Amino acid sequence: MPAQIDPMVATIEKVALDPNADIEKLERMLDMKERLDDRAREDAAREAEREFYRALAAAQTQVPVVVRTRKNSHSNYTYADLADIETQAMPIIRKHGFAVAAWSGAGAPEGHQRVHLRVSHISGHSHEIHDDFPLDGAGLKGGQNKTAIQSKGSTTSYGRRYLLCGYFGIATADDDGSRREASGPEMISVKDAAEVSRLVEETGTKLPDLLTFAKSESVEEIPAAKAGQVLQLLRSKAAKIAKEGSTDG
User: Fold this and answer.
1) Which end of the chain has a smaller Cβ tally under 10 Å, C or N?
2) Which pLDDT score, from 0 to 100, does residue 141 have?
3) Range of 20's domain?
4) Taking the alpha carbons of 52, 53, 58, 62 in that order, is the dihedral positive or negative?
5) How confident is the model at residue 214 (pLDDT cuts 50, 70, 90)?
6) pTM of the full predicted structure?
7) Are residues 41 and 158 in the same domain?
Protein backbone atom coordinates (compact mmCIF):
# COMPACT_ATOMS: atom_id res chain seq x y z
CA MET A 1 0.00 0.00 0.00
CA PRO A 2 1.56 3.32 -1.06
CA ALA A 3 2.39 5.80 1.68
CA GLN A 4 -0.09 8.60 2.13
CA ILE A 5 1.11 12.04 1.11
CA ASP A 6 0.73 14.82 3.65
CA PRO A 7 -1.81 17.26 2.11
CA MET A 8 0.15 20.23 3.47
CA VAL A 9 3.38 18.97 1.95
CA ALA A 10 1.61 18.48 -1.37
CA THR A 11 0.27 22.07 -1.20
CA ILE A 12 3.71 23.47 -0.36
CA GLU A 13 5.26 21.57 -3.28
CA LYS A 14 2.57 22.89 -5.62
CA VAL A 15 3.15 26.49 -4.51
CA ALA A 16 6.94 26.08 -4.70
CA LEU A 17 6.72 24.83 -8.30
CA ASP A 18 4.51 27.72 -9.37
CA PRO A 19 6.74 30.39 -11.01
CA ASN A 20 4.18 33.02 -9.99
CA ALA A 21 3.92 31.86 -6.40
CA ASP A 22 3.82 34.38 -3.57
CA ILE A 23 7.17 33.88 -1.75
CA GLU A 24 5.86 35.34 1.50
CA LYS A 25 2.91 32.96 1.41
CA LEU A 26 5.28 30.05 0.81
CA GLU A 27 7.44 31.10 3.79
CA ARG A 28 4.37 31.30 6.03
CA MET A 29 3.30 27.84 4.92
CA LEU A 30 6.78 26.45 5.65
CA ASP A 31 6.79 28.07 9.09
CA MET A 32 3.40 26.58 9.85
CA LYS A 33 4.56 23.13 8.71
CA GLU A 34 7.62 23.39 10.95
CA ARG A 35 5.48 24.33 13.97
CA LEU A 36 3.11 21.44 13.32
CA ASP A 37 6.04 19.01 13.03
CA ASP A 38 7.52 20.29 16.28
CA ARG A 39 4.20 19.81 18.05
CA ALA A 40 3.85 16.30 16.65
CA ARG A 41 7.35 15.41 17.89
CA GLU A 42 6.56 16.80 21.36
CA ASP A 43 3.30 14.84 21.50
CA ALA A 44 5.10 11.66 20.46
CA ALA A 45 7.82 12.20 23.08
CA ARG A 46 5.24 12.74 25.82
CA GLU A 47 3.35 9.61 24.83
CA ALA A 48 6.62 7.61 24.76
CA GLU A 49 7.42 8.84 28.28
CA ARG A 50 3.94 7.88 29.51
CA GLU A 51 4.31 4.43 27.96
CA PHE A 52 7.76 4.09 29.60
CA TYR A 53 6.35 4.66 33.09
CA ARG A 54 3.30 2.49 32.44
CA ALA A 55 5.63 -0.36 31.50
CA LEU A 56 7.91 0.37 34.48
CA ALA A 57 4.98 0.12 36.88
CA ALA A 58 3.91 -3.16 35.28
CA ALA A 59 7.44 -4.59 35.42
CA GLN A 60 7.85 -3.66 39.08
CA THR A 61 4.68 -5.53 40.00
CA GLN A 62 5.90 -8.70 38.26
CA VAL A 63 9.64 -8.73 38.96
CA PRO A 64 10.37 -11.62 41.36
CA VAL A 65 12.21 -11.52 44.67
CA VAL A 66 15.72 -12.56 43.65
CA VAL A 67 17.17 -15.51 45.59
CA ARG A 68 20.68 -14.78 46.85
CA THR A 69 23.18 -17.45 45.81
CA ARG A 70 26.55 -15.82 46.61
CA LYS A 71 28.13 -16.04 50.07
CA ASN A 72 30.75 -13.78 51.67
CA SER A 73 33.05 -16.20 53.49
CA HIS A 74 34.33 -13.59 55.94
CA SER A 75 31.09 -11.98 57.09
CA ASN A 76 29.00 -15.15 56.51
CA TYR A 77 26.11 -13.41 54.71
CA THR A 78 24.63 -14.16 51.33
CA TYR A 79 24.00 -11.65 48.58
CA ALA A 80 22.63 -11.50 45.05
CA ASP A 81 25.18 -10.76 42.35
CA LEU A 82 24.56 -9.62 38.78
CA ALA A 83 24.21 -13.21 37.59
CA ASP A 84 21.32 -13.77 40.02
CA ILE A 85 19.60 -10.60 38.81
CA GLU A 86 20.26 -11.46 35.16
CA THR A 87 18.75 -14.94 35.38
CA GLN A 88 15.87 -14.21 37.75
CA ALA A 89 14.75 -10.60 37.18
CA MET A 90 15.95 -9.42 33.77
CA PRO A 91 13.68 -11.73 31.71
CA ILE A 92 10.63 -9.99 33.24
CA ILE A 93 12.18 -6.56 32.73
CA ARG A 94 12.93 -7.32 29.07
CA LYS A 95 9.45 -8.77 28.57
CA HIS A 96 8.08 -5.31 29.31
CA GLY A 97 10.23 -3.74 26.61
CA PHE A 98 13.18 -2.47 28.63
CA ALA A 99 16.89 -2.60 27.88
CA VAL A 100 19.58 -1.48 30.32
CA ALA A 101 23.15 -0.29 29.87
CA ALA A 102 25.70 0.55 32.57
CA TRP A 103 29.18 2.04 32.40
CA SER A 104 31.76 3.87 34.48
CA GLY A 105 32.47 7.52 33.77
CA ALA A 106 34.44 10.57 34.87
CA GLY A 107 33.39 13.17 37.42
CA ALA A 108 33.46 11.25 40.71
CA PRO A 109 35.34 12.65 43.74
CA GLU A 110 38.74 11.19 44.60
CA GLY A 111 38.59 7.59 45.75
CA HIS A 112 35.22 7.00 44.10
CA GLN A 113 33.95 5.60 40.81
CA ARG A 114 30.97 7.09 38.97
CA VAL A 115 28.59 4.52 37.53
CA HIS A 116 25.88 5.38 35.01
CA LEU A 117 22.74 3.40 34.28
CA ARG A 118 20.56 4.03 31.22
CA VAL A 119 17.13 2.39 31.02
CA SER A 120 15.60 2.44 27.53
CA HIS A 121 12.16 1.35 26.38
CA ILE A 122 10.84 0.24 23.00
CA SER A 123 8.50 3.24 23.09
CA GLY A 124 11.54 5.41 22.36
CA HIS A 125 11.92 6.98 25.81
CA SER A 126 15.02 6.48 27.96
CA HIS A 127 16.13 7.62 31.40
CA GLU A 128 19.68 7.87 32.74
CA ILE A 129 20.85 8.03 36.36
CA HIS A 130 24.27 7.87 38.04
CA ASP A 131 25.88 7.69 41.46
CA ASP A 132 29.41 7.76 42.92
CA PHE A 133 30.67 4.66 44.76
CA PRO A 134 33.77 4.32 46.99
CA LEU A 135 36.44 2.31 45.18
CA ASP A 136 36.58 -1.28 46.40
CA GLY A 137 40.27 -2.07 46.85
CA ALA A 138 40.91 -2.99 50.49
CA GLY A 139 40.88 -6.50 51.91
CA LEU A 140 40.19 -7.75 55.40
CA LYS A 141 43.60 -6.62 56.70
CA GLY A 142 43.24 -3.16 55.23
CA GLY A 143 45.78 -3.67 52.49
CA GLN A 144 45.16 -3.48 48.77
CA ASN A 145 43.89 -6.84 47.55
CA LYS A 146 43.00 -5.71 44.02
CA THR A 147 44.82 -4.04 41.15
CA ALA A 148 43.54 -0.65 40.03
CA ILE A 149 41.60 -2.18 37.14
CA GLN A 150 40.16 -4.91 39.39
CA SER A 151 39.08 -2.29 41.89
CA LYS A 152 37.39 -0.27 39.15
CA GLY A 153 35.66 -3.34 37.74
CA SER A 154 34.46 -4.52 41.16
CA THR A 155 33.11 -1.08 42.03
CA THR A 156 31.38 -0.69 38.66
CA SER A 157 29.77 -4.12 39.05
CA TYR A 158 28.55 -3.24 42.55
CA GLY A 159 27.26 0.14 41.35
CA ARG A 160 25.42 -1.41 38.42
CA ARG A 161 23.71 -3.92 40.73
CA TYR A 162 22.85 -1.21 43.26
CA LEU A 163 21.33 1.14 40.66
CA LEU A 164 19.51 -1.63 38.79
CA CYS A 165 17.88 -3.01 41.94
CA GLY A 166 16.82 0.46 43.03
CA TYR A 167 15.38 1.38 39.64
CA PHE A 168 13.20 -1.69 39.23
CA GLY A 169 12.44 -2.22 42.93
CA ILE A 170 14.24 -5.57 43.03
CA ALA A 171 14.33 -7.20 46.46
CA THR A 172 16.48 -10.19 47.43
CA ALA A 173 15.90 -13.14 49.75
CA ASP A 174 17.59 -16.27 51.04
CA ASP A 175 16.31 -19.71 50.10
CA ASP A 176 14.23 -19.74 53.27
CA GLY A 177 12.39 -16.59 52.15
CA SER A 178 14.22 -14.19 54.48
CA ARG A 179 13.80 -11.01 52.50
CA ARG A 180 15.77 -7.80 52.29
CA GLU A 181 14.78 -4.48 50.78
CA ALA A 182 15.56 -3.45 47.21
CA SER A 183 18.73 -1.63 46.09
CA GLY A 184 21.11 -4.13 47.66
CA PRO A 185 20.86 -3.01 51.32
CA GLU A 186 22.30 -6.35 52.43
CA MET A 187 25.48 -4.27 52.50
CA ILE A 188 26.09 -0.80 53.88
CA SER A 189 24.61 2.04 51.83
CA VAL A 190 26.88 4.14 49.61
CA LYS A 191 26.27 7.21 51.78
CA ASP A 192 27.14 5.40 55.02
CA ALA A 193 30.21 3.75 53.45
CA ALA A 194 31.52 7.18 52.47
CA GLU A 195 30.85 8.42 56.03
CA VAL A 196 32.71 5.45 57.51
CA SER A 197 35.71 6.10 55.25
CA ARG A 198 35.73 9.78 56.22
CA LEU A 199 35.53 9.04 59.95
CA VAL A 200 38.23 6.36 59.74
CA GLU A 201 40.62 8.94 58.29
CA GLU A 202 39.47 11.71 60.64
CA THR A 203 39.88 9.64 63.80
CA GLY A 204 42.99 7.72 62.79
CA THR A 205 41.15 4.42 63.27
CA LYS A 206 43.01 1.30 62.18
CA LEU A 207 40.94 0.00 59.29
CA PRO A 208 41.96 -3.67 59.71
CA ASP A 209 40.64 -3.67 63.29
CA LEU A 210 37.41 -1.99 62.23
CA LEU A 211 36.84 -4.47 59.40
CA THR A 212 37.51 -7.38 61.74
CA PHE A 213 34.88 -5.99 64.11
CA ALA A 214 32.45 -5.59 61.20
CA LYS A 215 33.31 -9.05 59.79
CA SER A 216 33.90 -7.53 56.38
CA GLU A 217 36.55 -7.57 53.68
CA SER A 218 36.08 -3.87 52.87
CA VAL A 219 34.12 -0.81 53.94
CA GLU A 220 31.75 -1.27 51.01
CA GLU A 221 30.90 -4.83 52.16
CA ILE A 222 30.09 -4.03 55.79
CA PRO A 223 26.78 -5.79 56.48
CA ALA A 224 23.85 -3.43 56.86
CA ALA A 225 23.16 -4.96 60.27
CA LYS A 226 26.60 -3.79 61.44
CA ALA A 227 26.60 -0.37 59.78
CA GLY A 228 24.84 1.40 62.64
CA GLN A 229 27.26 0.02 65.24
CA VAL A 230 30.29 0.93 63.15
CA LEU A 231 29.08 4.49 62.60
CA GLN A 232 28.18 4.94 66.26
CA LEU A 233 31.63 3.73 67.30
CA LEU A 234 33.39 6.11 64.91
CA ARG A 235 31.18 9.09 65.73
CA SER A 236 31.73 8.58 69.45
CA LYS A 237 35.46 8.46 68.86
CA ALA A 238 35.33 11.60 66.72
CA ALA A 239 33.30 13.44 69.39
CA LYS A 240 35.80 12.39 72.08
CA ILE A 241 38.72 13.62 70.02
CA ALA A 242 36.96 16.92 69.35
CA LYS A 243 36.16 17.36 73.06
CA GLU A 244 39.74 16.65 74.10
CA GLY A 245 40.96 19.10 71.48
CA SER A 246 38.70 21.90 72.75
CA THR A 247 39.82 21.19 76.34
CA ASP A 248 43.47 21.38 75.37
CA GLY A 249 42.80 24.69 73.64
Assistant:
1) N
2) 45
3) 7-62
4) positive
5) confident
6) 0.60
7) no
